[in-house]
Amino acid sequence: MDIVAVENSTGISLSETFQILRSPLDPTRVRIKASNGFFVQAKTADRVTADYKDVGEEDWGDENPSLFIMTNSVDLRGEFQITNGYGSLHAPKVMQEIRVEGYN
């Protein structure tokens, strides 16, 4: 099953954020925690929902429906993280400030 995350909103809000938790033994194994406190799980081959309750165990086994294998098509570098955190309007200013401070 290949799943691609796609944004379909017109703005950013806290309810649209999520955490990607990586397995300490295999960083390609991830669990995605939604802002509602539940984990994203595969319900069917073409449907995922954010309603898997964590039972307090770090279950990274293949039978866990909230476990996904994540591959990056490109390396995520610092500028991506800044743009993601500050947004496309504020990130260029932050990058300019970092560059100026770095040379002084």
Automatic annotation (TrEMBL):
Q: Which Gene3D superfamilies does this entry report, sorted A to Z?
A: 2.80.10.50
Cite the Pfam families for this sequence.
DUF7910
Query: For this chain's UniProt record, which GO biological process terms are given?
Result: actin filament bundle assembly; cell migration; establishment or maintenance of cell polarity
> Gene Ontology terms, cellular component aspect?
actin cytoskeleton; cytoplasm
Q: Source organism's superkingdom?
A: Eukaryota
DUF7910 domain: residues covered: 2-71
List the residue ranges forming a coiled coil, or say none.
none
Xref: InterPro entries? Actin-crosslinking (IPR008999), DUF7910 (IPR057232), Fascin (IPR010431)
GO MF annotation list = actin filament binding
Which protein are we looking at? Answer: DUF7910 domain-containing protein
